[in-house]
Specification:
The complex is a heterodimer of chains A (about 350) and B (about 600). With about 350 residues, chain A is an alpha/beta fold. Helices cover about 30% and strands about 10% of the residues of chain A. In chain A, the strands form 2 sheets. A 5-stranded parallel beta sheet of chain A has the order 2-1-3-6-7, with helices on both faces. A two-stranded antiparallel ribbon of chain A has the order 4-5. The radius of gyration of chain B is 23 Å and the shape is globular. Classes of the chains: A alpha/beta (about 350), B alpha+beta (about 600). Chains A and B meet through helix 1, helix 2, strand 2, helix 3 and strand 4 of A and helix 4, helix 9, strand 4 and strand 5 of B. Chain B: Its cofactor is Fe cation; Ni(2+).
């Protein structure tokens, strides 16, 4: 294992590691759905990364509660405790779940991860982030809760929870010189997460530049396009042809789909193995990858306010174009007239050497 | 081997008691801590507390929201069974809105939920639970048992192909074993089947009150069926593999039936609606509940007390006692009578108000964010701490006793459940029979889980046939339009993967006035209630014998972990186990085994 002196703040630790630990804490305001989703990935699969099947990656030691081979307790916590003491480097810190406000909880805790070894009192998630994030070579937020607060940060929530960048500051830099890497989604699309993680691991191996992120710290190649731009029902939209209820295969924008304004690749990519999705298979986009999720998109089953204007505008154009295409389509559905079984050739072929 | 026959009565030796805790518990979902006192002289657990250290407050932040959002929001309660919440919420909303899903919509939901059981039970059993039974773990905890397993012929070798028990154990080694890796793949195939029906996993995109948005083309059912056929060999082999390992444990470690054992106190709220019968009217709930393809019921000491969802509903009580909440008895009740005119208790979820009060953890007082759901038995006057046996155990038990399920693929006999699976690539048609076992213990909870995968697969064959028949007949409606009433109540009952799941909804002024989801883990993982009755994990672990060969210095606690994991904890619904205030005793946390282990 590479051991490095703790670097100065702001000074980036070199990369080119042969081995790296992944310390994954899902004890945020979470449902563990991102961990579970990651086990659905096949591109690459988690076991292929852990067993070293993917060429060019460092040896990965995964410490994740759900998949841990340990019985639990201190055996599981040992690497986390070692890292907090500065004795385990380099490591990637993955946080799953939003970060509660522990300043408002009296003597208690909203969520904890293990106990303090001396006092036996629960150690809060926030304690771990305070102690691990400054030592982490990279910090990854898995899921919309950890990235932006998500469903548990809904209006009226009692825990005052937030995303990792709200907690650490959006100018946070890891010892590897990286900003927080946000992989939003509720849950994360399985391959999106594994692909991002492998990019970070290629970077750790010294064979890739840092992953390109947008201003909300999302991987650009995954979140640069909208749902609508990858939705196979967008053709209905263009023709002004909208579903009136959920029995319909048409565009769902009038029955709750926020796809046109949401950064997400699910309709294009499918959910897993190219199967499933959201509006492409009849499920309205509720914008679960977005910083404004969920409050800015509720009630989910109502038409987005912008949808009424754009669908009204597209309607006359769409209706006309649909009629024109209908005419062309019926032409396209008719075979050319020279395909027949009569005793003559009418294809236009001229056998000039025959009498 | 140091393990002796369990002495459940007077201990023979001078007790040598130590505090041992495991926090967090791994290979489960959510935050759970287990705190015990163990008498190493007599190899017995003498005390156990379980606690969950996570609070998010769904019932708090759902107030005032649009009721139609409930299925989308409550799905996020859980990252492995969120779709069960969406489904249950949709059932509750259907009741409140006075609507009925078109039959094909029900069939699509049944197929989605069947895939969820197949996915979840497979990944949990083979990738989470079975690590406790794999070669690497047994070598560290019971080396002499492993030595015996090397020479123990596997009775099911003709089906699964592994000659000895030790070979089976090796196949479950994490990330390396053959079955472990195959199970991960199967968990992907089954999730694809799920996504075909419900859009995406685990939070569905195509499930709505009134039905689904899934397009019911023949392709949909063909894509599902072909994947189902792909995994049938695996399902049949899994049953044989599990039987071999668990039977070996009974035989090689006499007394192992006491691990995780408690009274038979089981609850099952039923699943797989029968589209011909269900109308979601509370007044008819008794009938359509009994028409479900897994029968709801409550079993006490082997007797089926009821199969009536109205009885089940009215008996639910949410007790406090050890949880970080202020009581709500002085708050305004929401529902004083059910739609049949029966009185509704103040401690019933319809009337609950969640008032979080974070505080220090004190095992003599309050120590968990989980409340204590109980079922009030009018006949005995007792608040029963029902468990779900991880889900499958209670489902098979009630269905077997009730004798109501009679389909071409699954039949209840009154004492067993017969499950018929069609021919698959390498194995012939098979009928598997789950017979009511002698005990409610860790091994039988685990065994039931693998049988229920077969159950779900068998029912899925029927649902595919029903779905295709409707599509061929031109009946392709999957969604019913509705209006949200200003004032209404609803309740949903569904078997989540891990067992009983209820959603209770109250609508006022067209908004959510009250919403309380009760998943299985609050039942299983509850702390001691106001009557001092321990929760099921606590009860199952307390007084449990220890068979691990290690002494206190390098004790792993594998038997305790097997007992707890047999319930399939899922703590985004919540738990922690503790040490009592008696005499002390040498303090010892569970030992460390070095930092890096992939």
């Amino acid at each position: 294992m590479t051991t490095a002196k703790s670097p100065q703040a702001g000074q980036s630790q070199p990369h080119g590691f042969d081995e790296i630990h992944i310390l994954w804490i899902s004890e945020g305001m979470s449902c563990d759905g991102d961990t579970v989703a990651v086990t659905a990935a096949a591109q690459p699969a988690i076991e292929d990364v852990v067993t070293g099947l993917v060429p060019g990656l460092p040896t990965v030691h995964l410490h994740n509660k759900v998949l841990s081979p340990t019985v639990g307790g201190e055996e599981f916590l040992a690497p986390f405790r070692a890292a907090a003491r500065g004795e385990l480097t380099p490591f990637i810190l993955v946080i799953e779940g939003s970060i509660p406000n522990e300043k408002i909880n009296g003597d208690g805790y909203w969520t904890s991860f293990g106990n303090h070894p001396n006092t036996g009192e629960p150690l809060t998630l926030n304690w771990w982030i305070d102690n691990l994030a400054p030592k982490a070579w990279a910090v990854v937020a898995a899921g919309t809760c950890a990235t932006y607060g998500g469903i548990h940060a809904m209006a009226g929530n009692p825990t005052g929870c937030m995303g990792l960048a709200d907690y650490l500051g959006s100018d946070f830099r890891s010892t590897g010189g990286l900003p927080i890497v946000n992989v939003p989604g509720c849950p994360v699309q399985p391959d999106n997460f594994m692909e991002t993680l492998t990019w970070v691991l290629y970077h750790a191996a010294g064979s890739a530049p840092p992953p390109p992120l947008d201003e909300m710290l999302r991987p650009q190649w995954l979140f640069g396009k909208t749902v609508h731009e990858g939705c196979d029902r967008a053709g209905y939209y263009e023709q002004g042809d909208f579903a009136k209820d959920y029995n319909s295969p048409k565009c769902q924008v009038k029955i709750g789909c926020w796809g046109p304004v949401v950064n997400c690749n699910v309709p294009k990519r499918g959910w897993m193995g190219g199967i499933g999705g959201c509006p492409n298979v009849g499920g309205i986009c509720i914008a679960c990858t977005m910083p404004g999720f969920p409050d800015k998109f509720m009630p989910f089953m109502d038409m987005p306010p912008g949808g009424s204007l754009s669908s009204a505008i597209v309607k006359p154009y769409g209706a006309f174009i649909r009629r024109m295409r209908g005419i062309t389509n019926s032409t396209a559905n008719t075979e050319p007239r020279w395909r027949h079984n009569r005793e003559e050739l009418t294809s236009g072929y001229n056998p000039r050497w025959r009498p | 081997m140091t393990a002796t026959k369990p002495e459940r009565t007077a201990a023979k030796k001078q007790p040598q008691i130590m505090e041992m805790s495991w926090d967090p518990i791994t290979r489960i979902i959510g935050n759970l801590g287990i705190y015990t006192k163990i008498d190493f002289a007599n190899r017995l657990v003498t005390e156990c507390h379980s606690t969950s250290s996570l609070f998010r407050g769904y019932s708090v932040f759902m107030k005032g929201k649009d009721p139609r959002d409930a299925g989308f929001i409550t799905s996020r309660i859980c990252g492995i069974c969120g779709d069960n919440h969406t489904t249950c919420s949709v059932y509750a909303q259907n009741m409140a809105y006075g609507i009925k899903t078109p039959p094909l919509g029900e069939t699509i939901l049944n197929l989605g939920e069947a895939a969820e059981y197949m996915f979840d039970h497979t990944i949990f059993q083979d990738n989470l639970v079975f690590v406790d039974f794999c070669e690497a773990m047994v070598k560290e905890t019971n080396p002499s048992l492993l030595a015996r397993a090397e020479n123990a012929e596997a009775p099911g070798a003709a089906v699964h192909g592994y000659r000895t028990i030790a070979e089976i154990m090796r196949a479950y080694n994490p990330f390396e074993g053959e079955v472990y890796r195959e199970a991960l793949k199967v968990s992907r195939t089954t999730r694809e089947m799920f996504c075909l029906m419900e859009g995406r996993h685990v939070h569905p995109s195509t499930v709505y009150p009134g039905g689904v948005g899934t397009m019911p083309q023949p392709t949909l059912f063909t894509d599902y069926l072909s994947r189902l056929l792909d995994i049938l060999d695996f399902v049949k082999k899994a049953v044989a593999l599990n039987n071999d390992v668990f039977d070996f444990f009974y035989e090689a470690l006499p007394g192992y039936e006491e691990v995780g054992r408690r009274r038979v106190l089981l609850g099952c709220w039923g699943c797989f609606q029968n589209p011909e019968v269900v109308d979601y009217r509370y007044e008819n709930m008794t009938n359509w509940g009994r028409a479900m393809y897994v029968t709801p019921g409550i079993v006490v000491d082997g007797q089926l007390l009821t199969t009536d969802l109205v009885d089940i509903n009215l008996g639910i009580r949410i007790l406090l006692g050890s949880s970080y909440y202020k009581d709500w008895v002085n708050e305004e009740p929401f529902v004083t009578q059910d739609p049949l005119g029966n009185p509704v208790d103040m401690r019933h979820p319809w009337n609950q108000t969640t008032l979080p009060e974070p505080g220090k953890r004190d095992f003599g007082d309050r120590y968990s964010w989980v409340m204590s759901p109980r079922w009030f038995d009018r006949n005995s006057g007792q608040h029963l701490a029902l468990d779900t046996g991880g889900g499958p155990f209670a489902r098979l038990y009630t269905t077997a006793l009730a004798g109501l399920v009679d389909t071409p693929y699954v039949k209840s006999t009154g004492r067993s459940v017969q499950i018929s699976l069609p021919k698959s690539r390498t194995l012939p048609e098979m009928t598997l029979e789950w017979t009511i076992p002698q005990w409610s213990n860790a091994l039988e909870r685990n065994r039931a889980r693998v049988y229920f995968v077969a159950y779900a697969a068998a029912m899925a064959v029927q649902f595919i046939e029903e779905g295709l028949a409707r599509v061929r007949a031109g009946d392709t409606r999957v969604f019913t339009e509705f209006k949200v009433p200003d004032e209404a109540i609803g309740c949903g009952f569904h078997e989540a993967v891990r067992g009983v799941l209820s959603h209770h909804l109250v609508i006022r002024d067209g908004k959510i006035a009250n919403y309380h989801p009760y998943p299985p883990t609050p039942w299983n993982g509850s702390p001691r209630d106001s009557y001092g009755t321990p929760g099921p994990y606590e009860d199952a672990v307390q007084d449990m014998p220890i068979f691990e060969e290690n002494g206190p210095e390098n004790f792993k606690g594998v038997d305790i972990m097997r007992a707890v994991r047999s319930f399939d904890p899922c703590l985004p619904c919540g738990v922690h186990m503790y040490v009592g205030q008696g005499r002390t005793i040498e303090k010892l946390h569970s030992p460390m085994w070095g930092a890096g282990h992939a």
